[in-house]
RNA sequence: GGGCCUGUAGCUCAGUAGGUGAGAGCGCACGCCUGAUAAGCGUGAGGUCGGUGGUUCGAGUCCACUCAGGCCCA
């Protein structure tokens, strides 16, 4: 007869394969329909708050794998903390202002900015931003993220803008805000500043000139009358020249030509003299660049000094090694000039025409002035050579005309007067990894002032008014008023309303006797937007708190959000807006190289979710050491899928074998558990402790490996393999079986909870199948507590010894298999010789053959065992008949005539079943 | 060029405060099972711990340099 029907085989509808790509979206809909997030916050309402403050994502484009990594990590934290005794809200954030949106709009959509007002254009930007937000929101939800998706924070909302204005006002009040000059890309043809992204390079024909600057004070290194030679392709910037830069580490040659002395970098001496066509030159001496610092030369045609400075930016691959420096006409020039206290002289107006600050050239277009200036240089005997060359030069991407560097008035945040406070605040923050502190510290220590002006449209206006005499008005009264207006009407009014309507009623100023005012048209750097989230979100919302417990972003944000938030936070509250910074690395390809379209090694998270499922991507994120850079490739995903399968099948096996187990009635108390089951409960305790520590300390890979290792090694390869015989063959109510199931049930519940933060879809799916699960969603349950077990150490040692014996048995069985003595292990009888203490352990086992999954075991004492082994194992064919039901080879098979194929044990079990029922 | 970081088996990770032979899982190879079956089990082969040179009785673990990657600046 077929006794298979009398076996208690695993029974479950939990599918072996998850079909994640199609199942996950349904589950996500279910979460939404049943308001899982609201249920969660309600349930945790009275628990301590844990605020993970979300850094805003820029509202443009599809999410990439970096976003996915960042947000999955955050979701793991939120989900875990929510199950670990905290109220952990998640408010997703979007950065919705800024140039990329302007660019996307003008580029992809057919919008002609020139035909619309600023306010209209800004409205178009806002519409676009909301569309992008919607798209990204769906993609994040597809990742399985839990959070307040209906009420995210968005930097373009009136409340947020109002708060941002207040941050600005507070900083102004404390004297951190000032107006200064700084060179920016300027397009005379558009009469506006351009961003880097609006520049394209084309070939341009330019004059190339060598100019001599005569030394007036050689500082004991050079002689008055010596001539430092510079080279430039923009003669028109000579009126703005205030200095000459040399490299401190390079050598400079002083040489004689036709009675005059000249200076160039030694490395370029040959090329320069050749270029100038000078022969019979004579090198007189060589000076290191740093010695030339503070040498004074005379401007070639103005009555003013030109100072020699040293800078690392000076290169020796072209020119003379002495660089013409005009702080108002170049970024590097500006910075080095700043170090030496030079002003950003920029005698050019909006149209690119020289002002009276450039005597002799007033009213001349800069490009036209090139010739005049060159002639003036020649008249002053300073021009050594003129020729023309074609080179790559920045152009306005819209008008295709060349652009220039021009210093304009900008608003700055002064870092100098708050640097000490910032550095101290850095010291009070908890950093993970530890080096984050050094990194941000160095950055704050070395950073210059923060230029917050942007000559753009799509952003928060700088709330400054100007009086008739040009005085800037930044007062509490005006700033607060603007903030209130923005909160009510949005910031578009800044561009729509009359200036007087933006000022408080009856506002007057002694600087405006006529009572008229104008307003600043620059907007704020978007880093000011995101840097204000602690005010606009943490301080504003009921479900948040400042300082946040945690900020978690990619390591690029030390320069970005961590930085800007610190500055505004310290200014507004006196301290950092975060208690802890956790940072993650970047996602590289399988070889550790950065992903790029051209290399074709980019992995799209949307594809991964479509093909494998969000839980696979999440499991990847949970498995890697994210504090350094992480790798992602098809092979890595394949491996993650394999590991997922292992965990999933383990859960499935547990479910299947608990089909007849009702925890309410079938549970066995801990003190009545079989020893092996108790040991496994102890193993579960271990996993719980390790996984919990991994989650709590933000080392998810430890939680992941603890869970996976437990499934693969402890459960699948050992416990469940051994348990099958008892589960299948024993009587349903056999206490040994119920003991097993009790532990398996606890394992199932605990494991489902433990995987929930990383793979919520799979966890919730499993939860649905668990009989007696007391919450609707596992997310609403709490993390498992380790069971109370006595003599844990002793228990562990006992079983570790037994498992070591088992290893030796398995090896011996494999050898026997190779020698064709046996096939499956149940065909074997093993003789195990062990030392005294182990001998007793084995004897204490009621049925040692179960542990080794063999049919018969004989235990012997041995004085010694070979080094590295626990036992001497001999394998032979078991004696007797194979029981048709339990497949063990037994001597007592056939004792009952009615069931000649059964062993005594199976006979007893079968006797309790109504076989007729089973046949039917 | 500067600041910070990473580099242990094909892959993902462990390697405690320097000290018995460098580990795990996955993958791979070979085999078993066919009562977890597009599953399960076993055994095995894989590493000059990026490289070089030091410190030390002894270094994957400390120091210097170097190579390769990465983030942020210039």
UniProtKB/TrEMBL annotation:
Its main location: cytoplasm. It catalyses: tRNA(Ile) + L-isoleucine + ATP = L-isoleucyl-tRNA(Ile) + AMP + diphosphate. CDD domains: Anticodon_Ia_Ile_BEm (cd07960), IleRS_core (cd00818). Residues 27-632 form the Aminoacyl-tRNA synthetase class Ia domain. It is found in: Cytoplasm. The keyword Disulfide bond does not apply. Zn(2+) binds at residues 883, 886, 903, 906. Its cofactor is Zn(2+). The keyword Metal-binding applies. A motif ('KMSKS' region) lies at residues 594-598. Residues 880-908 form the Zinc finger FPG/IleRS-type domain. ATP binds at residue 597. A motif ('HIGH' region) lies at residues 57-67. Keywords: Aminoacyl-tRNA synthetase, ATP-binding, Cytoplasm, Ligase, Metal-binding, Nucleotide-binding, Protein biosynthesis, Zinc. Its EC number is 6.1.1.5. Pfam families: Anticodon_1, tRNA-synt_1, zf-FPG_IleRS. L-isoleucyl-5'-AMP binds at residue 553. Residues 677-832 form the Methionyl/Valyl/Leucyl/Isoleucyl-tRNA synthetase anticodon-binding domain. Binds 1 zinc ion per subunit. GO terms for cellular component: cytosol. Monomer. NCBIfam families: ileS (TIGR00392). Catalyzes the attachment of isoleucine to tRNA(Ile). As IleRS can inadvertently accommodate and process structurally similar amino acids such as valine, to avoid such errors it has two additional distinct tRNA(Ile)-dependent editing activities. One activity is designated as 'pretransfer' editing and involves the hydrolysis of activated Val-AMP. The other activity is designated 'posttransfer' editing and involves deacylation of mischarged Val-tRNA(Ile). IleRS has two distinct active sites: one for aminoacylation and one for editing. The misactivated valine is translocated from the active site to the editing site, which sterically excludes the correctly activated isoleucine. The single editing site contains two valyl binding pockets, one specific for each substrate (Val-AMP or Val-tRNA(Ile)). This is Isoleucine--tRNA ligase. It comes from Natribacillus halophilus.
